[in-house]
Design brief:
- The model has no long low-confidence stretch (mean pLDDT 80).
- α2 (18-37) runs antiparallel to α3 (42-52), α2 (18-37) runs parallel beside α5 (72-92) and α2 runs antiparallel to α6.
- The protein is mainly α and 148 residues long.
- Helix content is 78%, strand content 0%.
- The longest helix is centred in the C-terminal third of the chain and has 29 residues, at 97-125.
- It has one domain.
């Protein structure tokens, strides 16, 4: 880490997970309602939603891709923008099922990878504050155990 570079505030790094919350909110809740309003059969709604949520648990396999060429900040920004564009597109096409499924997969995959990119930055910049927080939590837990 360059000593001249100031670390980003922890709140800003936490705010970088907004795209993950947004995509996780629209995939199981909003988009199925839009598809139901477009008279899509329930079995198709369930399968599209399940397939669209699959990047949430497959992201562990693809997260190392973020270390290959570009900086994590650049990747996080690009992927958050891609997730937002895909989410906006999903609202516009609830009746085109194949395209909707692809767009939702892109939305979720980009959001999960976007949220995992700043995780390493948080550890890199805020290691001391994380250690202090862990010590405070351990002290609090030991106090609670000693009182009981």
């Amino acid at each position: 880490m360059n000593s001249m570079c100031r670390p980003p505030p922890a709140r800003l790094m936490g705010l970088s997970n907004v795209s993950l919350g947004f995509s996780t909110g629209i995939t199981p809740f909003v988009v199925p309602r839009l598809m139901a309003a477009a008279h899509v059969p329930e079995s198709q709604i369930a399968s599209i939603t399940a397939i669209a949520a699959s990047p949430d648990f497959r992201s562990v396999l693809f997260s190392p891709i973020l270390d290959v060429r570009f900086s994590r900040r650049w990747c996080a920004s690009l992927l958050a923008g891609l997730s937002g564009c895909a989410a906006a597109t999903a609202f516009l096409i609830p009746h085109q099922l194949l395209l909707l499924q692809v767009v939702l997969i892109i939305c979720n995959a980009a959001a999960v990878l976007s949220a995992s990119a700043p995780g390493r930055l948080a550890l890199q910049y805020h290691t001391e504050s994380i250690q202090k927080l862990g010590e405070q939590m351990a002290e609090h837990c030991s106090d609670q155990w000693s009182r009981d």
